[in-house]
Amino acid sequence: MVIQYQEGMALIIYGSEPLREGLIALLTAIPQIKEITTASNIQEAEKIVQRQLPVLAFLLPPSSEKNLQISAQKIKSKSPKTKCIALIDDEKQMNILLEAGVDCVKPKGFPANELFLVIQKLLALQ
Fold it and tell me: Where are the domains of the chain?
């Protein structure tokens, strides 16, 4: 069985510089990711999504729970096929973000190889 994957741009929203840089390093190893763009706030992210729909969007701490929730809702409303992954500092955020449309919520700091597998699974065409 051959698995086909979506290809395209990954968008990283919020996050500290070291966290973003680590994620960029991981994403460059995934052949389906053709471009990586970062946004420091939802306004920047919305402009990017209007120009080009990402296949993958990462919502990173230390942004507030409300910002992550609103960002997920805005991205999903403009681009329902975009897969959203949120990395969180607090497990209490999980249900709120899943209800907002985030496809996968993981605690910040979980193993990179696990994140790689999550990304592959989300990008697999059904």
Answer: 14-123
DSSP-assigned letters across all residues of 25-74 = HHHTT-TTEEEEEEESSHHHHHHHHHHS--SEEEEETTS-HHHHHHHHHH
The CATH architecture to which 14-123 belongs is 3-Layer(aba) Sandwich (3.40)
pLDDT in tens, 39-58: 999 899 999 999 999 999 99
Cis amide bond preceding 107, omega within 30: no
Please name the amino acid found at residue 117. L
Looking at this protein, which amino acid is placed at residue 72? Answer: A
Predicted TM-score (pTM) of the model is 0.92
DSSP one-letter code for 108: T
Cα separation, 62 vs 59, in Å, equals 10
Are residues 60 and 14 in contact, defined by beta-carbon separation less than 8 angstroms?
A: yes
